[in-house]
Write a structure and sequence with these properties.
The protein is mainly β and 331 residues long. Helices cover 2% and strands 42% of the residues. Strand 19 and strand 20 form a beta hairpin.
């Protein structure tokens, strides 16, 4: 690894759906490695999952890690029009030796959640630019908005919210639709810069699309976008103004399979009956009879029905003692 590697340049990835379980989305360099890279572009793509955790440093959309003793000149990295769904951090650049230059994040939408750990710039790093980066409906204009840590020797980054843009927003009804029954999707809360006209493009997470401010659509089943049986469809709205400026909005639409009928209220008395235990035990302080009544804790919605059919488990914690100790709220 002490011998310099070949230069790597002119890589384009576009119009892709990207997912990784145990790593970064884009990873460059390694401690003690020596090579140069330039002109990398990732654009017009969706990242539906990246690794949660890290290997030496936290996972990110873009990680360049050469600490310690890694060397090489890396420049001209552009991430443009990227939508992040299940993500960990945006950027981790850690290179103490020359040099990292010209890294540009433009039109990045993290529509549903913030990053779980701070992004980091460390070492001989300069010319990192964030333009129209949006995290949970908020434009990133400072380190604290992301957040971003600028550590030893790294030069300050710059932020730009870009030109005045269209704003995407939508509602839908009903909130718990059935499969194969149409729902109404409405983008009436969307707006445009300076009153200019918008166009509306819908992506329903089931392979179908539509156009218009108000549309109606039926999900084909309750499998969900990831075909995992969750019923969760990732619905996206893309709003474009007449100058070509774009904004995105996202909602998770949950298609229900069934709705449970309400439980009949039989001889209920106002108030709460409970027992509180604090501490650690080798054996459960809860009686074996109580544990037997709660033996259906693994069922959906944590429901347990006693002989009176009026007891519902709302929350619980199961420990590793024997018999199981539980902390549970019953109504």
């Amino acid at each position: 690894m002490a011998n310099p590697g070949d230069d790597v340049s002119n890589i384009l990835i576009e119009n892709s759906v990207l997912s990784t379980r145990v790593s970064n989305v884009v990873r460059v360099n390694w401690p003690h490695k020596m090579f140069n890279s330039s002109n990398f572009i990732l654009r017009d793509s969706d990242v539906i999952h990246m690794g949660i955790g890290g290997c030496g440093v936290p996972f990110a959309l873009f990680e360049l890690w050469a600490d310690p003793e890694g060397r090489g000149k890396h420049s001209g990295y552009l991430f443009d029009s990227i939508r992040l769904e299940d993500w960990y951090s945006l950027v981790q650049i850690r290179q103490p030796n020359p040099a990292v230059r010209d890294v540009h994040f433009k039109d990045i939408w993290a529509l549903e959640s913030a990053q779980l750990v701070p992004s980091v710039l460390k070492g001989d790093v300069a010319d990192v630019h964030f333009e129209n980066v949006k995290v949970v409906d908020r434009l990133v204009d400072s380190d604290g908005d992301l957040p971003l840590q600028v550590l030893t020797h790294a030069n300050p980054e710059t932020y730009d919210s870009g030109p005045r843009r269209a704003k995407a927003s939508f509602t839908y009804a009903p909130l718990a639709p059935e499969s194969r029954k149409k729902s109404r999707f409405e983008a009436s809360d969307s707006s445009s810069a300076l009153g200019k006209a918008n166009t509306y493009a819908w992506f329903f997470g089931d392979g179908t699309t539509a156009k218009g401010r108000i549309v109606r659509h039926a999900m084909p089943d309750a499998r969900g976008t990831l075909q995992d049986g969750s019923g969760r469809f990732r619905v996206l709205l893309k709003v474009t103004d007449e100058d070509g400026n774009v904004d995105w909005a996202s909602n998770a639409v949950i298609v229900r399979q069934t709705l449970d009928a309400p439980l009949a209220a039989l001889n209920l008395v106002a108030g709460l009956s409970y027992q509180y235990y604090e501490g650690s035990w080798l054996r459960s302080p809860i009686s074996a009879d109580s544990v037997r009544k709660l033996q259906v804790l693994s069922r959906p919605f944590l429901r347990t029905l006693t002989s009176t059919r009026t007891t519902t488990a709302l929350s619980l914690m199961v420990t590793s003692v024997s018999p199981p100790a539980v902390a549970i709220l019953l109504v």
